[in-house]
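Now for a typical sample entry:
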Amino acid sequence: MDLNRALLLLLYMAASEVQDIQTRPIDFVCDYQARRSMNKVEEIKSAMGECDGSDLLPSAIPLPCVGINMGAWRKKSLQQKRGQVLAALKVLTEGLKMVRAKTQNGCQSTLLERLEHSVTNYLHIVMNLDILQDKGEGQDFACQSRNTLNLDQVLMQYNKLLSGMLEMFMLELKDMCQGET
């Protein structure tokens, strides 16, 4: 029965990933609904209910820093803001890869793979945005990352990243949308 559940969960997750395959990064910037539909946190949380023991991870995962000091944020260049978003996404991606390699629970492994795929999609979009590079990219050094063994905490932090820092960054790029509709 556990194998059937895992296969059903895998099929459900694969089907939900098929949509919106051929989009450009600018489409992501200009379309709030596209950004919203890409956020799979609630779907993964729901799938956790079908996966016994999925909330406790086999090893700790670092949580990215997602809080924003608005005064400091306003002073940053677009490149620095992108660097901060990329750094947070990379922390998640690397942590998910390490934890997924250690998991023994097939259902949990599928959830982690799905989450990793979601984070990687955002990573590619933000990396491929057509804005100039500078040397000021990277994590905000004032931030102290923390670790967790709880997948629900990882999902909450990821959701904060998407609805907070990433969304603020997208709003600042809205000028790129002129003539893109």
Confidence is low (pLDDT under 50) at residues 17-21.
